[in-house]
Structures are given as structure tokens and as C-alpha cells.
Design goal:
Layout (H helix, E strand, L loop, with lengths): L4 E5 L14 H12 L5 E2 L4 E8 L2 E8 L7 H11 L6 E7 L7 E5 L7 H10 L5 E6 L9 H4 L6 H23 L2 H8 L5
Parallel strand pairs: 1-4, 1-5, 5-7
Antiparallel strand pairs: 2-3, 3-4, 6-7
Helix pairs in contact: 1-5, 2-3, 5-6
EC number: 3.1.1.29
Catalytic activity: an N-acyl-L-alpha-aminoacyl-tRNA + H2O = an N-acyl-L-amino acid + a tRNA + H(+)
Subcellular location: Cytoplasm
Length: about 190
């Protein structure tokens, strides 16, 4: 099979959002780009794209530049341009319903109020893509989740963040090279 994988890291473009919880997907995509020894370039549609190999697999990394709520358009543009079948799409995103430091991998499911996933599902016309759900935890007290995701990680979280991003990138590699169930068994432990 010579079809590539499409790995989409979700986030918001611009330096003002770079260190925020909502940009966990961008952080993982950036680490994967480092592992590929490549640099993102402007691609088809509103996205930064990098083509290369990870673990022997042909991969197209995508960081939509359309802002989170419109991630579907750039994702589908890349899917169509590179002719990637739905079952070879992996979306990496922040997840409020998972504790900080924990990961969950799955295929399909709802969007859990995540507007990036909502946009991608609508644009693809299916929920049946793979997801790497990067736990960011729930906001403290009565803080609005919409505000919480656009804030930087707390200082205690920031210390652990590189390890969590590294683990999420490893989980993407596991999905590229083996079945979902094997990757789930390996990465669904407690938070690091």
C-alpha cells in the first residue's frame, strides 16, 4: 500500500496561541516534524504541511492555519490532494475530559464539544478517523472551558509538558505501524 498517512495536529496559528492548551496538537506535530528532520511549508489550502517518513511509513503532517473552528477545510484539502483514505487519517487534539498527562487513542466517536473535531467531522462527512486525545484536564472552579483552553499550561504542567508531547508523538508512531488495539494497550495507562 503506497497511500500516505495524514497526521493533523490541531491548534490556532500565531505566536499568541503557541503555548496554549488548545495547541497541544500543534506541539505534537512540531515534534514529529523534528523527528522527520523537516520543516513545515505552506501547503494546499490554509495549512502548513510536511511530507516525509516516520517509522518507515509515508506521512503528511498538517497544521491547519484556519483557526481551530475551521480545521475541517484544510484537513479535507490535504486529504484530497494527497489522496489519503479516511482510515489513514490521524487527528491529534487537546481533550478536556482526560486528565492532564493522560492519552487516549480511538477511532470515531463524538466531538465532545471540541470545535476542531466538529469541523473535521463535518468536512470529512464521517467520524471514523483515528484520534490521539491529549489530556489537558478540566478547568478549575467555574472557569469557562473556552477560556481555559486558550490559556498557557500552568507552571507545574509546563514542566511535564515536553514528556507528554513526546509520549503523544510516540503514540502517533504506534498508530502508523500497528493496530489501534496494540497502541491503546500501550498508551492508555495512567497519566505520566
Amino acid at each position: 500500500m503506497n497511500e500516505p498517512w495524514l497526521v493533523v495536529g490541531l491548534g490556532n496559528p500565531g505566536p499568541g496561541y503557541a503555548a496554549t492548551r488548545h495547541n497541544a496538537g500543534f506541539m505534537v506535530a512540531d515534534l514529529l516534524a523534528e523527528r522527520m528532520a523537516g520543516r513545515f511549508k505552506a501547503g494546499k489550502g490554509a495549512a502548513h504541511v510536511l511530507e516525509g517518513r516516520i517509522a518507515g511509513e509515508r506521512v503528511v503532517l498538517v497544521k491547519p492555519q484556519s483557526y481551530m473552528n475551521l480545521s475541517g477545510g484544510p484537513t479535507v484539502a490535504a486529504q484530497n490532494f494527497y489522496k489519503v483514505p479516511l482510515e489513514r487519517i490521524i487527528v491529534v487534539h487537546d481533550e478536556l475530559d482526560i486528565d492532564f498527562g493522560a492519552l487516549r487513542l480511538k477511532r470515531g466517536g463524538g466531538d465532545g464539544g471540541h470545535n476542531g473535531l466538529k469541523s473535521i467531522t463535518k468536512s470529512l462527512g464521517s467520524r471514523e478517523y483515528l484520534r490521539v486525545r491529549f489530556g489537558i484536564g478540566r478547568p478549575p472552579g467555574r472557569q469557562d472551558p473556552a477560556d481555559f483552553v486558550l490559556k498557557p499550561f500552568a507552571s507545574t504542567e509546563a514542566k511535564e509538558l515536553p514528556l507528554n508531547v513526546d509520549r503523544a508523538a510516540d503514540a502517533v508512531e504506534a498508530l502508523l505501524t500497528g493496530p489501534l488495539e496494540t497502541a491503546q494497550n500501550r498508551y492508555h495507562g495512567a497519566a505520566v
